Amino acid sequence: MLRSNTCGELTISDLNKEVTLCGWVQKSRDLGGMTFIDLRDRYGITQLVFNMETNADLCEKARKLGREFVISISGKVIERSSKNKNMKTGEVEIEVTSMTILNASKTPPFTIEDETDGGEDLRMKYRYLDLRRKPVASKLMLRHQINKEVRNFLNNEDFIEVETPYLIKSTPEGARDFVVPSRMNPNEFYALPQSPQTFKQLLMVAGYDRYYQIVKCFRDEDLRADRQPEFTQIDCEMTFIEQEDILNTFEGMMKHLFKTVKGVELTDFPRMTFDDAMRLYGNDKPDIRFGMPFVELNDVAQNQGFKVFDDAELVVGICAEGCSEYTRKQLDALTDFVKKPQIGATGLVYVKVNADGSFKSSVDKFFDTQKLKTWADKMNAKPGDLLLVISGEVNKSRKALSELRLEMGKQLGLRDNNTFAPLWVIDFPLLEWDEDSKRFHAMHHPFTSPKLADLDKMNTAPGDIRANAYDMVINGVEIGGGSIRIHDRDLQKKMFDLLGFTEEEAKAQFGFLMNAFEYGAPPHGGIALGFDRLCALFGGSESIRDYIAFPKNNSGRDVMIDAPATIADAQLEELFLNTVKPVAKG
Amino acid sequence: MLRSNTCGELTISDLNKEVTLCGWVQKSRDLGGMTFIDLRDRYGITQLVFNMETNADLCEKARKLGREFVISISGKVIERSSKNKNMKTGEVEIEVTSMTILNASKTPPFTIEDETDGGEDLRMKYRYLDLRRKPVASKLMLRHQINKEVRNFLNNEDFIEVETPYLIKSTPEGARDFVVPSRMNPNEFYALPQSPQTFKQLLMVAGYDRYYQIVKCFRDEDLRADRQPEFTQIDCEMTFIEQEDILNTFEGMMKHLFKTVKGVELTDFPRMTFDDAMRLYGNDKPDIRFGMPFVELNDVAQNQGFKVFDDAELVVGICAEGCSEYTRKQLDALTDFVKKPQIGATGLVYVKVNADGSFKSSVDKFFDTQKLKTWADKMNAKPGDLLLVISGEVNKSRKALSELRLEMGKQLGLRDNNTFAPLWVIDFPLLEWDEDSKRFHAMHHPFTSPKLADLDKMNTAPGDIRANAYDMVINGVEIGGGSIRIHDRDLQKKMFDLLGFTEEEAKAQFGFLMNAFEYGAPPHGGIALGFDRLCALFGGSESIRDYIAFPKNNSGRDVMIDAPATIADAQLEELFLNTVKPVAKG
């Protein structure tokens, strides 16, 4: 045994014990004839004390230790004179009697402290040092804890974990696959899974009843800040169930996670249809930590001579409580915000419902006080509130106002990271129309079941068919989504027809699943939760990258190991491949 | 809720309950005016009964159900007249009052029974049907249970699971990598990990102290029956430990698994040095469910005029207890066995120690009774035993005799699948000489630590240096292996020198890990266990393929989904790749 204890466990009840600790030198300070060292390991920090008077040699040696040196010390647990009540180990220190330097360290390229002086790039290159910092380490510990509780819950609910393969087959639908050339099967490629979707459905056909897997998935997409080429999914599927069973099961799981990991009791999840979510929040993943719902104003704001509104498909506003005192500058900033290209509104109309009952708006020229009052009434505004109104094409206006609502929520402190507002968004449309290809696409995937009540719209109004599809949303973040699957061959055929597949095309793309469905496929459905995102939600962070031990940057590179990299010609030859030099664009 | 109960839970205590069950039609039989159906789901089988007298329509409908149809039924739990005490549900049946056909099924291509009429190829193509068979399903359930208990144990021991990346960098050492072309980084490739070795060492440098992961690994090797291109590893690493700590921890884990999963109390694991294992069993993973150790006979068998022995480096034998009555035919079969090319002995000498005390051997011409008796004494043979002796070059003879020993163990019923004999093989050599390249290779990997006591052999006899490396062996199967790693830069440099690396080469191949070692690397070490093989051991099977839901065949193909497959030209173009037609050999 190299140590008798960790750096996180000794307390006043261990006084006078002879102990041996190992760890890293966090910091060191000389005070009078003493040298104090904070010794750190995963479990905590314990203070060491070296005394120049009683053991000059050892104290000299201690004074030469650099930050991040790895040492082993033996000594006696004694009471500290100046106690730190904020730390478990803060009442004791170790009077060191012997020390071994287990390893030296060069000076790290950035400080290993909660607040570091290292920039993102440097920290990524030396990720193994960044991982030593407590805020980073605690995120990975949190991830482990959530993983554990997910398993506890699902195991307890009779789900079994089944590992599905990573070397599968490329499918032309959906996002781009990463592919893996096969040496044994020249000129053929495996694909890395974007999700185990088809395999989990096959497991249901095989009778496994309740399946889960915490599994890596891969998408070769152009990366944004919150995307990674490899990400982790909690993938689940159930048999002999209806939508209600899935919602209840996974609402239960989320309550279990919040309770066990964060000590938070979640309320029952409200449910909102996709249509309501779009109408009231302009968004299929509304943040309902705060209200501020959309109010459509067409009937009270149009046909009053204001051309911008009159020409608009939709006039829609929100009421920002207590914001009537917003300054010109603040209002201009909001206008600039909604006019950003990625938000896309052409302008912003405001109406101040002043505390004295008077009104002041950016459209006073067109609307008198009485008119503005009808708006205010419709929006349940009180004196002191501020109305913010956007107009134009329906989808664009909703999108812009949704962003503005989130921005106002932020400005008003209504989006507290320690408040959690879960929600099921249900009744998603089955299909979405694609203008480019002039055909319907499956909004979820082609195996998603339509609502039986909407089946008669298959021929007349396919765009109006609702699906048995649902998303779990917490604080405006889509944590997961899923659907009840089609298990009936005739219905599946109709679905393929709607999507414009010929029977041959359907067979070529989904042949093995279609075959499986011929042999007694049970009713089934499932859900997949984004594990990285779930961890970020629990940790109160925006970035999933913080919750991944070795993430990739926005070019898909691991800068620490410098991957991807060129490979040897012999390797390419064995794989029957030639590389083609990219031609410079322009 | 589509069902009130599963098919595995209703018993006599549920009598008269109205229930709804869902499942697959396992089989059906008509008996008098009744029709009986075995309804199957993951949890079990429940008998349904339909009565032609009381409900003719329903009974007619039931008689038309084919095997593997998916149905939902409602009815009352009643007591069976002919009870099956071997099944939990065997005392009751359901008097069906209503039935819905949830899905029809074509006739499966093979019977869904414990013993099926389907060949391997057919069952792999329809793996989702094969997975319905109880012997297959129970193997995956077992796998889940072992997975769960591994986690329970390691979580309880303060290990944390950290996910390491799948898209990493190709390294020229070791087995062949699968590579993944990068679209965003043209002409560069990721590699899929053969193991998370370097990442787990980086996690130790980062201070994570105790890490584990149950993780997929990939090796592009020519496949044998017990190899898969993707396989699962229980990967672990610990900090501030010595070899003894690792052996104790993972011996503890294995005892926990055997106890919780199989109800078996394992004994303490004996330890055997690599040298002893080779000398006594000719094998670094001896099956010690039975004895039959090797006895070296050079001193008593050489220089007696038998040229075959006199020319041999080693004369070595085993004593097969009670086999002196083996027939000529049996002995010839054993000779044929050891002469097989993959076993490679040139011949087999036998000595029968007859029950009456006389001897009969295949070398009576060269050795008289008195000589043979010295052999028998040396081998502790009793009357009735059979001595089997092989001679030749040391390694070859040991290998051949090892195979013969295992074969004799099998013939004598000494290798019972329900007996478990665990073992640590320790003190592996650090290096092995490679005749082809005329240099030393690392036997485990270049970061394996030599034994401090052997450091003085670094310059004089590097081949004799023992490593702090160990294998866990159970019933002759290598379940896992690991080592204490080098954490000292100077020692690491010496190791690279021994392996013939220049500093530049070492940097190019292991640069990021070498860099990390500059910043306070702690003493650490670990182990990796083959999860598929562990499951097979628990299940008493030889083949790991049985324990993988969707395995690949010996050509690395998934015949169910037909992967790998060609991909679209556009996909290749995006990846800046051309395929090269393989040239026919010959």
From TrEMBL, chains A, B:
HAMAP family the record matches: Asp_tRNA_synth_type1
What is the main EC category here?
ligase
Family listed: Belongs to the class-II aminoacyl-tRNA synthetase family. Type 1 subfamily.
On assembly, the entry states: Homodimer.
Which keywords appear in this protein's UniProt record, sorted alphabetically? Answer: Aminoacyl-tRNA synthetase, ATP-binding, Cytoplasm, Ligase, Nucleotide-binding, Protein biosynthesis
Annotated GO CC locations? cytoplasm
Gene Ontology molecular function terms on file: aspartate-tRNA ligase activity; ATP binding; nucleic acid binding
User: Is Cytoplasm one of the keywords?
Assistant: yes
Asked if the keyword Nucleotide-binding belongs to this entry, the reply reads: yes
Specify the protein name: Aspartate--tRNA ligase
Q: Which InterPro entries match?
A: Aa-tRNA-synt_II, aa-tRNA-synth_II, aa-tRNA-synth_II/BPL/LPL, Asp-tRNA-ligase_1, Asp-tRNA-ligase_1_N, Asp/Asn-tRNA-synth_IIb, AspRS_core, GAD-like_sf
Pfam families hit by this protein: GAD, tRNA-synt_2, tRNA_anti-codon
Q: Which reaction does it catalyse?
A: tRNA(Asp) + L-aspartate + ATP = L-aspartyl-tRNA(Asp) + AMP + diphosphate
Taking every annotated instance into account, which residue ranges of this chain make up the domain Aminoacyl-transfer RNA synthetases class-II family profile? 140-551
Q: Give residues annotated as binding L-aspartate.
A: E173, R219, H444, R485
Q: Which gene encodes it?
A: aspS
Ranges for the region named Aspartate are 197-200
Q: What is its main location?
A: cytoplasm
